[in-house]
Task: structure prediction
Amino acid sequence: MAIPPGSFDLAPLIPAIAILVWGGLRLMSGPFGQALVERLRGSAGEELREDVELLREDLGRLSGELVEMREQLEFTERMLAQGKVPPVSTPV
Result:
Protein backbone atom coordinates (compact mmCIF):
# COMPACT_ATOMS: atom_id res chain seq x y z
CA MET A 1 0.00 0.00 0.00
CA ALA A 2 1.44 3.34 -1.01
CA ILE A 3 1.63 6.32 1.33
CA PRO A 4 -0.38 9.26 0.02
CA PRO A 5 1.61 12.41 -0.73
CA GLY A 6 1.82 14.87 2.16
CA SER A 7 1.32 12.24 4.88
CA PHE A 8 3.98 11.03 7.30
CA ASP A 9 5.10 7.42 7.76
CA LEU A 10 5.55 6.52 11.45
CA ALA A 11 7.24 3.16 10.79
CA PRO A 12 10.81 4.54 11.02
CA LEU A 13 10.01 6.01 14.45
CA ILE A 14 9.09 2.67 16.03
CA PRO A 15 12.71 1.64 16.86
CA ALA A 16 13.46 5.09 18.29
CA ILE A 17 10.35 5.00 20.47
CA ALA A 18 11.22 1.47 21.62
CA ILE A 19 14.74 2.59 22.59
CA LEU A 20 13.37 5.60 24.50
CA VAL A 21 10.86 3.44 26.38
CA TRP A 22 13.53 0.87 27.21
CA GLY A 23 15.89 3.60 28.44
CA GLY A 24 13.15 5.17 30.53
CA LEU A 25 12.35 1.85 32.15
CA ARG A 26 16.03 1.24 32.92
CA LEU A 27 16.32 4.73 34.41
CA MET A 28 13.25 4.29 36.57
CA SER A 29 14.42 0.90 37.88
CA GLY A 30 17.69 2.42 39.15
CA PRO A 31 18.44 4.72 42.09
CA PHE A 32 16.89 7.72 40.37
CA GLY A 33 13.60 5.90 39.92
CA GLN A 34 13.63 4.68 43.51
CA ALA A 35 14.26 8.21 44.80
CA LEU A 36 11.44 9.51 42.63
CA VAL A 37 9.05 6.86 43.96
CA GLU A 38 10.04 7.66 47.56
CA ARG A 39 9.49 11.35 46.89
CA LEU A 40 6.07 10.69 45.42
CA ARG A 41 5.11 8.47 48.34
CA GLY A 42 6.24 11.11 50.81
CA SER A 43 8.76 9.02 52.72
CA ALA A 44 11.58 11.41 51.83
CA GLY A 45 9.36 14.23 53.05
CA GLU A 46 9.67 13.08 56.68
CA GLU A 47 13.27 14.27 56.85
CA LEU A 48 12.23 17.57 55.31
CA ARG A 49 9.43 17.96 57.87
CA GLU A 50 11.93 17.44 60.69
CA ASP A 51 14.29 20.00 59.16
CA VAL A 52 11.48 22.51 58.76
CA GLU A 53 10.41 21.99 62.38
CA LEU A 54 13.97 22.61 63.60
CA LEU A 55 14.18 25.74 61.48
CA ARG A 56 10.88 26.98 62.92
CA GLU A 57 12.19 26.45 66.45
CA ASP A 58 15.37 28.38 65.61
CA LEU A 59 13.33 31.16 64.03
CA GLY A 60 11.15 31.43 67.14
CA ARG A 61 14.22 31.59 69.39
CA LEU A 62 15.89 34.21 67.20
CA SER A 63 12.71 36.23 67.05
CA GLY A 64 12.56 36.30 70.85
CA GLU A 65 16.19 37.39 71.04
CA LEU A 66 15.51 40.15 68.52
CA VAL A 67 12.59 41.46 70.59
CA GLU A 68 14.80 41.47 73.69
CA MET A 69 17.59 43.35 71.88
CA ARG A 70 15.10 45.94 70.59
CA GLU A 71 13.90 46.54 74.14
CA GLN A 72 17.48 46.97 75.32
CA LEU A 73 18.22 49.38 72.48
CA GLU A 74 15.10 51.44 73.19
CA PHE A 75 16.02 51.58 76.89
CA THR A 76 19.53 52.73 76.03
CA GLU A 77 18.18 55.37 73.64
CA ARG A 78 15.82 56.70 76.35
CA MET A 79 18.65 56.86 78.87
CA LEU A 80 20.88 58.74 76.41
CA ALA A 81 18.04 61.12 75.49
CA GLN A 82 17.50 61.95 79.20
CA GLY A 83 21.18 62.59 79.65
CA LYS A 84 21.60 59.71 82.06
CA VAL A 85 24.75 58.12 80.82
CA PRO A 86 25.98 55.28 83.01
CA PRO A 87 29.71 55.13 83.72
CA VAL A 88 31.60 53.13 81.17
CA SER A 89 34.30 50.83 82.42
CA THR A 90 37.37 50.74 80.23
CA PRO A 91 39.69 47.75 80.13
CA VAL A 92 43.13 48.37 81.59
